[in-house]
Each structure stands twice: as C-alpha cells, then as structure tokens.
Write a structure and sequence with these properties.
With 344 residues, the chain is α/β, with parallel strands linked by helices. It is 38% helix and 17% strand. It has helices at residues 7-10, 30-36, 48-51, 61-72, 104-121, 147-152, 155-167, 185-198, 219-232, 249-253, 259-262, 274-293, 335-343, and strands spanning 15-19, 39-42, 76-84, 96-97, 100-101, 126-133, 172-177, 205-208, 211-213, 235-244, 298-304. The chain binds (3S,4R)-3-hydroxy-2-oxopiperidin-4-yl beta-D-xylopyranoside. Residues 43-44, 133, 209, 240, 312 line the site of (3S,4R)-3-hydroxy-2-oxopiperidin-4-yl beta-D-xylopyranoside (XIL). GO terms for molecular function: endo-1,4-beta-xylanase activity.
Length: 344
C-alpha cells in the first residue's frame, strides 16, 4: 500500500460503500466515510418500494437528502436499484392490474414511468445505476420466476437499460446479482450479456454483489468470472462486498424453518474471537490479491455497510451480532482492514 493511510489512497480501484439510511444525520460516521471511500450507495432509500410505494406516490425526501449530502462531501453516488426482479421486492401494485397480473404493456409502461422519474430526477448527479437487480434464477431456469419474467421474458431487462440510458446518457449502467460467479448462474449471466449486446442494449458493467461467507469464498469461480469478463471486454463492479463470519448453511437447508431457533444462536455477541478475525483477514487478503490482477476490468469495489455495527448481516437471515466488514463497532480498523491495505 506504499505508505498510504486510507483505502482510497492505497487502492488501484475506486472504493465505495453502501450506507445506512439517514447517514446525513450521523456526523460521527462522516470522517470514516470520507477518509476511505469515493462512492456511496444508499442501502435502501432509492429502491422501488421506498420511492414509489403506491402508483404515482413519490417519496424522494430521504433519497434527495442522501444525494445532496453525498455531493456536498464530494462523494459520487451509485443509484440502487431501478428494477428488483423479485416479486417480494417489487411494490405489489406494480405487478397487478385490477385482479389480474399486469400485462407486458402495462408493466413496461409502469417501469418506464418509474425509471424516467427516478433517473431523470437525479440526472447528472448519479454516476452509476444498478438498473436491474437479481433477475437470474438460482435453480434450473434462465430467469427468476416473477411477474416481470412471466409477462415480459428477458425483454424487461433490455428495456430497463434502454429507458435508463435515455433518462441519463452519462450514467454508467449495471446489471447486478449475487452468486453470478458460480457455476450455472455464471453461464446464464454470459447468455444475458451476449443477448443484450447483440441487441445493442446500453448495459455497461456487471455487478458481483460479493456477499461471501467465511469458509465459502468462491475464489476459483470468481477468477474464472473475472477472466471471462476481461476477455469479453465487459467491466465489473464488486457492488456489495462483505464476509459473513457465521455459517448460514443450516438456515438455508431448512428453508428458514429453523428461524426461531437460530435467532437465539448468537455465537459472537460478546465479540468476535481473534482466530476468526484472522481467518477473515486472510480471506479478504486473497480476494484483493485476485482483484488486483483484474484492476483493468474492475471499475469499483463497494462494501455493504460502513462498519460491523451497521451491517445488514446483523439481521439477515436471522438476528445475531455479525462481524463482516473492515471496521468494528467502534469504527476501528480490524485485522481485515490491515490485510486489505497490505494487498492494495
Ligand atoms: C438489503 C439491505 O441491506 C437491507 O437493509 C434490507 O432490509 C434488504 O436489502 N442484495 C441487494 C441489496 O441488492 O439491495 C440488499 O440490501 C442485500 C442483498
């Protein structure tokens, strides 16, 4: 890291962070934020359910304050997200028309209004947009089953990018997903990229969310993915990086049924043991060694939240004290921070 004192100074890629709602009211967070990061993503405040909970009922107050705050601190803003291609993340009114599912025409028209309004409002103020989030299926299908894919197939993805580009031609437009470096989903992502490019759709980068678990960081799949993106001339952002220190396998295996029991499972509530913090530091170091090899392909690396106390993983998929980030609850650098700094 050549004597640099902050992530931002040390890093060959722009660094960013997803931040908690109402950071503009938390001056205690500002020094850490501005010292280390160049990009900020609002964790929730620009999501469709936040900005348009009912048709034509726009709620921009928090998002506006977020953008004004960021720009006043000379931070660049990543917009997140215009279409979250999951039914439980789409405002319910969007997908229905009376008592029937909304038709392709209705859905696309609503999507266009949404994108025109949101992207248009922040035109020139948002550097990059996560345009479509989580549209690829985790199982055997190509696209995730949703009111979007049922009514429009792949077309809603293409149209979302076309509308976003028309509303702000200078914004960099991203397709964002999780596990899209893994076997199966990776091939679907390549299919999507090829299809969008054949149609000359303005999709400029792939977002790899990067929500990893301590002992399951998919280094090989990630390297294969970065190499493939480099060969295809496709840019990548690592959009939501964190390393969960508490295994979630049992929760997933039981499909959430064990939630009640697991919510009492809080192994590190009195602090994370040093050997776990060390292991996490090693995993972060390996990740950044890999990222450095692809610094011509990676446009940004953003962590999902500023410090452990604010991580969404304290709640998801069950409540417990988690320790996934580079800074602890006192906002002090962890072993993972020093390990990343050594690799940058
Ligand atoms: C999460 C937020 O961090 C939580 O606060 C919220 O309750 C649910 O959404 N992938 C994404 C993000 O693209 O929008 C998600 O953010 C985390 C997973």
């Amino acid at each position: 890291s050549h004597g640099a004192d902050t992530l931002k100074e040390a890093s060959p890629f722009p660094m960013g962070v997803g931040i908690r709602d109402r950071v503009f009211e938390l001056p205690g967070d500002w020094p850490l934020l501005t010292a280390h990061y160049e990009y900020v993503t609002p964790e929730n405040d620009m999501k469709p359910v936040a900005v348009q909970p009912q048709p034509g009922q726009w709620r921009f107050e928090t998002a506006d304050r977020f953008v004004d705050f960021a720009l006043s601190k000379k931070l660049k803003v990543v917009g997140h997200c215009l279409v979250w291609a999951k039914d439980d993340r789409t405002p319910p009114w969007f997908a229905t028309d009376g008592d029937k599912p909304a038709s392709r025409e209705v859905l696309l028209a609503r999507m266009k209004t949404h994108i025109d309004t949101v992207v248009g409002r922040y035109r020139g103020k948002i550097a990059m947009w996560d345009v479509v989030n989580e549209a690829l299926d985790d199982g055997s299908a190509y696209l995730r089953d949703s009111s979007w894919s049922r009514a429009c197939g792949e077309e809603f993805i293409a149209k979302a990018f076309v509308y976003a580009h028309a509303a702000d031609p200078d914004a960099l437009l991203i397709y964002n997903d999780y596990n899209n470096e893994l076997d199966g989903k990776f091939e679907k992502m390549v299919r999507l990229i090829e299809s969008l490019h054949a149609q000359q759709v303005p999709m400029h980068a792939i977002g790899l969310q990067g929500h990893y678990e301590l002992d399951m960081v998919p280094f090989e799949a990630l390297e294969r993915t970065l190499a493939a993106m480099q060969r295809m001339g496709m840019k990548v952002v690592v959009s939501e990086l964190d390393i969960d220190v508490i295994p979630r396998g049992r929760w997933w295996a039981n499909n959430g049924a064990e939630r009640a029991t697991l919510s009492k499972y809080d192994p590190y509530k009195d602090g994370c043991p040093p050997e776990i913090l060390q292991r996490q530091a090693e995993q972060y170091a390996r990740l950044f060694q890999l990222f450095r090899k692809y610094s011509d392909t990676i446009l940004r690396i953003s962590f999902w939240n500023l410090h452990d106390g604010q991580s969404w993983l304290n709640d998801f998929p069950w409540k417990r004290a988690n320790h996934p980030l580079l800074f602890d609850r006192e906002k002090k650098p962890k072993p993972a921070y020093h390990a990343v700094m050594r690799e940058l």
